[in-house]
Amino acid sequence: MGFLSRKNKTAPAPTVEEQHPIVEELREMEDAVPEKSQPAGPVADQGGSEPALGFSPGENAPAAEPEGRKTDAAAASDPPSPAPPAGEAAVEDPPPSEPERFMPKDLLAPSRHSGSQESAEVEVEAPAKHAEVIAFANQKGGVAKTTTTLNLAVAFAESGHRVLCVDLDPQGNLTMSQGIDPDKVEKSLYDVLVNDMPIGEIIQHREIDIAVSSIDLAGAEIAMSTKIGRERSLEKALKEVSGEYDFVCIDTPPSLGLLTINALTAASKVIVPVQCEYLSMRGLVQLQNTLRMIQENLNPDVRIEGILPTMLDTRTVHAKEAIEILEENFGDLVFQSRIRKAIKFAEAPVKGASVLKYDPEGNAAGYYRDLAKEVLAHESA
To answer: What is the pLDDT of residues 153-196, one digit of tens each?
Structure first.
């Protein structure tokens, strides 16, 4: 019986060889690793045995391995995965997503996108309006610079413009002309130019807004001597409030020092009050030389808006000759408006007011209203 049982155990061996041809072995190998052998695409329902063999009919089929080796390989390999349903056999599962990771382009794209939107909005919006900065300069004193600065500024305000006056003269005459005592102000342009204080902190509101002065301003040139960019201190300060005004009128001291250079660097236009006398006219030559130096080194856009004859007494021959000399040498630069002598110009500062407020219907007020119309006509042209 033992012999018979051993014979029964070995008898199926020939049967195994008949039931396992080479094609069946290859199919079993492909079933064991279907993801590596099958290309992407719906191939589960294709007919025929050749497409599932992993080689084309023209190629030589790989040789069959011995049965023992097949058994060892099958034992060492992982169990075959179940075949996927039709239409999904070749579709591989996507790799797991990592939402917490960002590519560099994902981090940079929002900034570029927002920047493009901002640039588009800037192109659509109207350009920001900046104040027209006018400096009143002449190195000779007593030519009505302060009077012209204040009254022309008030005439601009009467026309509906927003105006700021800047008192850059250490004497503080413009500040006093608006009823403010320069000796009692706590903060002045000295703090703005030397200590970089915002100019808005020293502006006081009277007939017009005024950036006040004090006697401390006399030491500003020495205090600013070691400051980098000292010539542009006023220009930088005015940028903070430039959008709030239509005109900024700067009263300068009777010299061509650092304070006047600051005014000419910040200004786009210069009005030169000239007393109708010979000595006052000599200062024009020196002012022109200084202005040329400013144009070459600091502010190429500044130019003379006009030369204004002031304190004119038409009864004297000397005054008439002075006007003729101005017009002969400077032509159209000489304003058609004339500021004639009037006692109201001396009385108005005592009341802390402009002549347009002190005597609004008088001739003195009319002179500066005419000048304002002429300057505004130049602006529109």
So the answer is: 999 999 999 999 999 999 999 999 999 999 999 999 999 999 99
pLDDT at 306: 94
User: How many CB atoms are closer than 10 A to CB 365?
Assistant: 23
Mapping DSSP to helix (H, G, I), strand (E, B) and coil, where does residue 116 land? Answer: helix
The widest CA-to-CA distance across the chain, in whole angstroms, is 161
Tell me which of 117-126, 226-235, 330-339 is least confident: 117-126
Q: Which CATH superfamily is domain 132-380 in?
A: P-loop containing nucleotide triphosphate hydrolases (3.40.50.300)
Domain boundaries, the chain: 2-76, 132-380
Alpha carbon distance 79, 98 (integer Å): 30
pLDDT of 375 over the 70 cut? yes
Tell me the three state secondary structure of residue 327. helix
Report the distance separating Cα 51 and Cα 100, nearest Å: 42
For residues 105 and 238, the answer to whether their CB atoms sit within 8 Å is no
* 3-state SS, residue 19: helix
Strand (E) or helix (H) holding 309 = strand 303-310
Instruction: Let me know if 226 is exposed, middle or buried by CB neighbors in 10 A (0-12, 13-18, 19+).
Output: exposed
Whole-number Å distance between alpha carbons of 372 and 340: 15
Residue 116's pLDDT is: 43
Residues 215/170, Cβ–Cβ less than 8 Å: yes
Helix, strand, or coil (residue 163): strand
Distance of CA 119 to the CA centre of its chain: 11
Measure the CA–CA gap between 159 and 163, rounded to whole angstroms: 10
Q: Where are the alpha helices (DSSP H) in 11-78?
A: 13-19, 22-32, 34-37, 67-76
pLDDT at 276: 86
